[in-house]
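User: Predict the full complex structure for these chains.
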Amino acid sequence: MEFTVVGAGMAGAFLALVLGRQGHTVTVYERRPDPRVSAVHTTSMNLGLSERGLKALDRLGLREEITRHVVPMRGRLVHGHDGSVRFSTYGRGGILAIQRHDLGILLIEAATRLPNVRFVFGTRCVAVDKDLPVADFVDDAGHAFTVTPDVIVGADGAFSVVRKHMQRDERADYHQEFLEWGWRELHIPAGADGRHRMADDVFHLWPRGETMMFAHPNLDGSFTCSCVLPFRGPRSFDALRTSDDVEALFRELFPDVLDLVPDVGKVFLDQPTFKLVTTRTSPWHHEGKVVLIGDACHAVYPFLAQGMNAAFEDGLELADSLAAFPDDPEAAVERFYQRRKPHTDALAEMSRQNFAELRDTVRSPAVRLEKACDVVLEKALRHRWMPLHAMITNTTMPYAEAQERARRQRRILQAVVAAAGMAMVGGLMRRLR
Amino acid sequence: MEFTVVGAGMAGAFLALVLGRQGHTVTVYERRPDPRVSAVHTTSMNLGLSERGLKALDRLGLREEITRHVVPMRGRLVHGHDGSVRFSTYGRGGILAIQRHDLGILLIEAATRLPNVRFVFGTRCVAVDKDLPVADFVDDAGHAFTVTPDVIVGADGAFSVVRKHMQRDERADYHQEFLEWGWRELHIPAGADGRHRMADDVFHLWPRGETMMFAHPNLDGSFTCSCVLPFRGPRSFDALRTSDDVEALFRELFPDVLDLVPDVGKVFLDQPTFKLVTTRTSPWHHEGKVVLIGDACHAVYPFLAQGMNAAFEDGLELADSLAAFPDDPEAAVERFYQRRKPHTDALAEMSRQNFAELRDTVRSPAVRLEKACDVVLEKALRHRWMPLHAMITNTTMPYAEAQERARRQRRILQAVVAAAGMAMVGGLMRRLR
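Assistant: Here is the predicted structure of the two-chain assembly.
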């Protein structure tokens, strides 16, 4: 079959590779320039490749190639207000930090090695007629043209043009929410010796309640930092007008970073602020002629670092569904939707909840006790007990199953904590007698 | 101040009248033709004017004029499967049935009596620049022009063009959901004697579980019926392909209507099917330069018949807010948003819940007992106890308050029913001893 894929981001490039391997003819159109030629300005955080993503790349024989571009992170290092640090392990495989630019190029190069896959950059999709199907494009030189493949795939992100045209006049559910927080990127360069200036095998996190920062290690000795702040309020993007304001904020909240980012006040003000959006929609397809994958049908907040991993899972599931119904693309895309939708809904919910978890500094004693029990039970029960983050990161258990299992574990934990509390009160009363 | 209102539906026409009375200069642009000249094809059910809407019209001195166009409905007449009927009163003022076309003309005529209010029909809003603010229009002759008022009001319905332009590049939450049900309109003409062929002082309802029908009396002896069916499934729009299919469905579910609608099979198939959408969004305004009202910011399902009543409340609240901050439109529209948003959210939720209530035929004994207690308590406690429908229909209590009060009452009812159940079981056990 002949596929037109709109968007050469993670979702689109990966899908092109999978479909190409299956022998389909694939052309990918991307509005941005070719990342192999020009450094693309990205609107997305550094990537964390976890078990799901790695398994997917493994199936395509890319694991070895990938590992040359990653920095393994074996756990999370939480930086306290007072300069103290606290480590918690990611378990098993950990998470692999990789720069979006590197992974993008790797996928595109792997796909273009196939004779039946082609990428066209600097070309914008302007309309889709879902019933034919037909897609209209305009390239950077202003030249307009039309393509008539068998299937059009919208891999064009949270504000997908394909989705807009596919859902026109349909009874389409659509939900979009933004956080009151945004983020800016900062860069910690390598030290004079070319090496990392903080631990290079962990994910660094500075949780500060209303604000937070985190940093991923890069291969070249540098770190990519993401500062998450509210848009409005006393400590917000809105309130930071001068480089003195910025430096004062860093001195107060992130003093250990102040010296690591040269000229942080000015640099911070020059950076664009990115928004954080989550979307949920249905339908995902139209009669086997148009189908959406990745952020185009389920953009999530980045706080579980699963966006790309989920997009890769989408790609595999869509390819498997097409292979299961080779003569019936409508049945194939419906199978794809049915098998993915519950899990991407669950991922969206868990990603939202994990934001509070990440930036939270003060925890009630009950929650601390719960967390402690979670770790103890994991060690004691091994495969029969796994904290949520481990299920998301270290397994390929479908997201909704992980969510349900975490809920059951949570109920048990709460009962354990309540019992422990009652035993303590009982002990106290006996002493008082 | 100078206002441009986009949309001359219920929300826009009413607002033009209120703002005009306050001395503002108002121009209303509407893409449809002038309803005073041509019969507009509507995509909305017949209207039920309840206390909220009536109070709003009263404030504008229109109550007397309105009452010449309405048919009072004193309650709901439920038609059973077997031809039996069951009446339940709406209490106090009842609900006034009125045809959208009549009320639209009445509002437009009242507004154009003011020298500072003007309507321009057959003119479509194509773009808004929210920061100036500027609105671009194209009229039916293809002539394009631009207006630069102080404030642009989007009263252009659920798929508002003003909203789309106002929220572009903003962190705007937006939620849209369609029901799996749609509806078609049917007409029961007056009898040979020019009189109604069913009771003319009630709202007629045929609840049938997955489907339902209802009918509003018109002044001319006819009824306007709305048939609500699922889009897909055994008894659905999809399944009704021939006039025989339609007649078989009516014979099975609505036998008493079969003879009242001439040639129902053919007529039904010729009617368009309307979708049912609910939307929720924020923000509602941009810096006091652009603001949304009515369906443009909170379309609700029609099952509490409050869409128009809520749009009138919006109009009054916006006008009151502008009067409260005559020199600060930004503060005015923010006050408007703060005072309306919780209530329109509550209305959306209650309207959704009432759909199941309306079409439901089989009720558990516990629910029946609850309903019965609800009525008894209303009579016994008078002003201190009021069923939800009465609070929505017969009062101007803000929607979120009505919702909260109904929740409290529900908890009490459930406790009463549980206690009654326990007493019964106790009595039974004593007998068995």
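Chain A has three domains: 2-71+99-176+279-354, 177-275, 365-432.
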